[in-house]
Write a structure and sequence with these properties.
By secondary structure, this protein is of the alpha+beta class. It has three helices and nine strands, in the order βββββααβββαβ. The protein starts with 9 loop residues before the first strand and ends with a strand.
Length: 184
Amino acid sequence: METGLPENVLTCTQCGGELHPDEGQIFLTCPFCSSTVYIDKARVVFHWYLAPTLDEARARGALSRWMAGNQTVKDLDRKSHVTEVAFQFFPMWYFKQRLAGGREEIALMPGAATAVSEIVHLRLPAGDLRKYHPEIDVQAVTPTVPLQAALSWLTAEQGGSAKEVIEQSLVHIPIYIFKYTYQG
């Protein structure tokens, strides 16, 4: 699509204002409307984050309940020891798709490498998304999965017949990572 703009000028997805990113810059705040955008080689997309609802103590409590539950190794809660806790904002590609009949559906794809395949089944309440701000950078994982790759995964997951994507964003979600030993 020809925009008539120089190659290093992009348009804000919110207000249409001209954005002038520096070389290598991947996050940018629009000087006109203050929207935070993520710059992928493919295009500019909204950039959001989801505020944490648990502090470390409550996250430890949730982990303890899971370890004591029936879906784990027997006595995991008593035979294990937490060795490390880390908090981070993990990047996820957020796709809103239009289904037959006009209904909409949200699909998620990881924005960085992860061994947790179940992460795509999270439900992100759109009303809880907040504009990304630079203070989060310290705890944010840098996205390494390009938008086009995530779109390809989405199509493959849907059996090769992609639904119409009507909105795409990069969302950093809060997660705690607990490392533990089991029986030494």
